Amino acid sequence: MSPKAIGILFVALIVLVIGSSAIYVVPETQSAVRLRFGELVENEIQPGLHFKAPLIDEVRKFDVRILTLDVPERQYLTIEQKPLVVDSFVTWQVGDVAKYYKSTSGDETRAVMLLSSRIDNGLRDQFGIRTMHEVISGQRDELMHELTKAMNAVMTKEFGISIVDIRIKGIDLPQKVSSDVYRRMRTEREKEAQEHRSKGRELAEGIKADADRQKTIVEAEAYRESEVTRGEGDEIAAQIYADAYNKNAEFYSFYRSLLAYEDAFSNKGDVLVVDPESDFLKYLKQSQGQKK
Amino acid sequence: MAWNEPGGNRNDKDPWGGGNRGNEQGPPDLDEALKKGMEKLNKLFGGKSNSNGGSGGQGNGSSAATGGIFVIVIIGLLILLAVESVYTVNERERAVVLRFGKYAETLGPGLQFKLPLIDRVEKVDVTRVRSAATRGHMLTEDENIVEINLAVQYVVKDPKAFVLDIRNAERTLDYATDAALRHEVGSSELHQVLTEGRSVLAVRTQERLQRSMDFYHSGLQVSKVNIESTQAPAEVQDAFQDVQRAKEDEQRVKAEAEAYRNKVVPEARGMAQRILEEASAYKEEVIARAEGETSRFLKLLSVYEKAPEVTRERLYIDTMQRVMSKSSKVLVDVEGGNNMMYLPLDKMISSTPSVSSSSPSRSVTTGRLSSDEIGSLTDRVLQELRTRQSDNTTRRGRQ
Prior knowledge:
heterodimer, A: alpha+beta, three-stranded antiparallel sheet, B: about 400 residues, alpha+beta, about 50% helix, rod-shaped
């Protein structure tokens, strides 16, 4: 290999270096602007291989993917002056590269700061015209939609930034408000517990009363039935007695009285004051008995 | 190359741009290797060490040596190119290929070729299930606070979008999960969230999250949202537990009442049964007694009718004998109604041997009649004496 060849190689190397500074690649994730002596000459350069004048052109590339920014937690007041601690995030991307470059000189940190403070203001406005209930439940979509639209218009016009979406990822109540909420929750639970207990007692009382009713009825019916039965017994017995004693009523009366006397005067505690004139004692005074 | 670091998506990933290129493993290493190689060769051919890398080897190195160096350089470059232009994609991965920075294609698993220095390859794991979790206190629609734990599982569905359309899709998903969950909780009632509404909440959160992720071109597919727990905040936990206890109390009190019912009603039926049995026993008893007594009477009657006078007298005297022998007697032999007669009945009674009295008004323990009783007794005796019609004047004690 001659020195000449080496020279050629050297020249080739130089050419390669200069050539390589004349081409550049914009990857899919980015967009670029070309500046000549600091002046913007080409905008929105699409991904791919591109050429530029070496040494006098400068190419600035920006990430045009969707970016996520966590907006710091801030406290906002609702229309009824209730404070809410709101944590939100925003997804955005560079829309108009030239505008973006001019307004932020391509410094993402600056863009993020701008975005944060604008969103902060936007949220403050949106919360200030709504009640807490609207913010929490029904109108969240609407609120975010409005805010996104308003922010998007401003940011596109001023900074070439397009806002994809703003979302709230947390609404918390400050300590004072949440303790009120807890108090209310507790009261509601206590009410519910009381309701259950009372209802239990109510049911129990009903069941017991029903039991007592059944008991009373069952016993009363049994009593009725038993009285009927006893009556039947009495009736039959009386019929039997009557049938028998009617055969000789006078003798029955005598016979039955004797049984009754015997039963009645059956111990020494009974004192009989007896007239000696009585039938039983008729022979006590005279052997012939007394004349009646 | 920095491009080929999977997963990482830093802003300065541009291999051509003026970013930090501290970890380039291409040409510089190659130069070093070549230099070393050439020096070794020179030594081999007896030449001195040449630090100018072949540019200044005038006359020292032989032309053969220089040629050799050239050949080696060429071969080295070829090998390098070969190595650079082949790569493998794992079964789990997809490769997103950028040609001159432009998106070219997405390749599946296997041995793949690329243009060295021109193609950039980004490999993405598309089967690994990634997960995110969030927890926290949030407000429900009825302005209560609830504590929720939630886990999300997701995969990369669209590697192209995942790599090219969004920066740090996974962090975005974390944020969007929080947002979606709070949104859904904010439009549900506490009671729902704590009970049967949990599964519905999970489904709706998943749908909302997926919509967000599609909207952001994240290329992520949410495969599952799992709400691990929903509970009332610790500050009011005890009140919620008390509600549970109250529900149990309700059931318990009810059960106790039912137990009472199950006891009382059958007992009442038993009692009823007893009453009925006793009644029918009474019925049988009185009938039996009636039959017994009447048949006794009828037998006696049949005898009596044969000899009435004698039988009657005998019955009377027998009975009186039994009566008189069992009870105390006072014989009063006066002519018609001397009502000034004084009977010290109390004395008489108390002097009688104390036996149990059949009269219910006189307990055995006192053994005495009150003066009222004695008075009335005396009156009755006198009255009896006066108004006596039959000859056998008897007076029973109190009924």
